[in-house]
Amino acid sequence: TVGSGGSSSISFSSIPSTYKHLQIRCLVRGAYGLIVINSDTTTTYRRHWLYGDGASTGAGSDTSTNGWDVIDSSNTANIFGVNIVDILDYTNTNKNKTFRTLSGGDYNGSGEITLYSGAFYNTSAISSLNLSMSSGNFNTATKFALYGIK
Predict the structure, then answer these.
(1) Could you identify which of 27, 30, 73, 139 might form a hypothetical disulfide with 81, taking C-beta atoms 3.0 to 4.6 angstroms apart as the criterion?
(2) Edge-to-edge, what's the strand order for the sheet holding 129-133?
(3) Alpha-carbon torsion, ordered 56, 109, 80, 67, to 10 deg
(4) 143 Cβ contact partners less than 8 Å away, ≥ 6 residues apart
(5) How far apart are CA 131 and CA 71, in angstroms?
(6) What CA–CA distance (Å, rounded) separates 47 from 70?
(7) Dist CA 51 CA 73 (whole Å)
């Protein structure tokens, strides 16, 4: 849980290799969040998304070397975005890493739900995750939890 004054980043380090998949669950208030794997900002990250807001839908894709921009939030006071990020086969060194994210948020009476899928083009086992905001800090009371899935 982010304390008073906010935080520029959240890190999970020394992730054990005893699970099949990883899952991050978070309640976020701020801007969009970015996940960087093993401190790697040189390998290509790719993502696709589908979204809907009750009135319209859309889809898109992009690439980045800065990380996965897959955590949605809300900038509205006291309203948090909800995200579940699955990182599949995170210890398998024979393939690139894939992920999926389901996120949603309320924007003061309107809202949006987004489904992301993507890949991290690196076969290294994942041992650390760093989460940061695309700009600014995670706001006070933002919560993150990392789970290992057997």
Answers:
(1) 73
(2) 9-12, 129-133, 33-37, 68-71
(3) 30
(4) 1, 2, 26, 27
(5) 9
(6) 8
(7) 14
Start-to-end CA span in the chain (Å): 25
Provide the token pair at 24: 């991050």
List CB contacts of 105: < 8 A, sequence separation 6 or more.
72, 73, 74, 79, 80, 81, 82, 111, 112
Q: What Rg do the C-alpha atoms of the chain give, in angstroms?
A: 15
- Give dist(CA 146, CA 11) in Å, integer: 10
Residue 22 burial by Cβ neighbours in a 10 Å radius (0-12, 13-18, 19+): buried
* Burial class of residue 139, CB neighbours in 10 A (0-12, 13-18, 19+): buried
Kindly report the backbone phi and psi dihedral angles of residue 125, in degrees, each rounded to the nearest multiple of 5, phi listed first: -65, 145
**111-120 vs 45-52, strand pairing mode:** antiparallel
Tens of pLDDT, residues 83-125:
899 999 999 999 999 999 998 887 777 788 889 998 999 999 9
Whole-prediction pTM: 0.89
The β-bridge partners of 9 are 132
